[in-house]
Amino acid sequence: xxxxGIFLQTAQCGAVYPEEDGFCQGFRKERARTGQNGELGAYxxxxxxxxxxxxxxxxxxxxxxxxxxxxxxxxxxHISIExxxxxxxxxxxxxxxxxxxxxYRLPISMExxxxxxxxKEKEYFKxxxxxxxxxxxxxxxxxxxxYKILLASSSTKERAVGVLEQNxxxxxxxxxxxxxxxxRGKPYPDIFLKACAYAGEAPANCLVLEDSEAGIQAAYAAxxxxxxxPDMKKPDERFGRMAAAELxxxxxxxxxxxxxxx
Length: 262
Description:
alpha/beta, DNA polymerase, domain 1, eight-stranded mixed sheet, 8 strands
């Protein structure tokens, strides 16, 4: 269904698409384990919005891809954009670095790889880490409407706060949760459940904004409605079914909320 340019996805796994039961089963079990069994189609008014960072608030995914290219080039190797999107986009930096070192048999430690990544990224960000379209407008709207605003990012605190402060939007956030604070990264629900705890809200009262498949899975497993705003890769249809909506940019979120009387 499409309303004023907004595509809505409200089908529950197993209800309209029984062929996906095997895929969705694991996430339903994770929702049950965490006590979150709400249906995607049963919309509840929200008072808390939880943002991802990379690829959603800041246009950093293409920089992240270039960092891996720079690292591998030192050892005469290359990673395709397709491989980066499929295997690394939206996941924790430490997990990604371990995987890259292992796959490409790089003669470095994970710590050395992360140090290179941090140094190189700072060099790129000196040239400007641009906010995505609609960020400031949406954050201002949510603050006026007295939503609780949180960040749940796989990034480190120093990096995330630094780039948000550089772009003048850090003060909008009431709380922030980082990948180093949870045992399991996305697609597990831990980081979003921790964000709910910081907000003092049940998952049903929260809304997650995400761009990656791993983030969508994590929010779904936590029992939180999630809006997907794709960045480098449009999520596969099976992931789209886990989302309450798929929008083209953050500029559309205000209209989506207002259509629901928020």
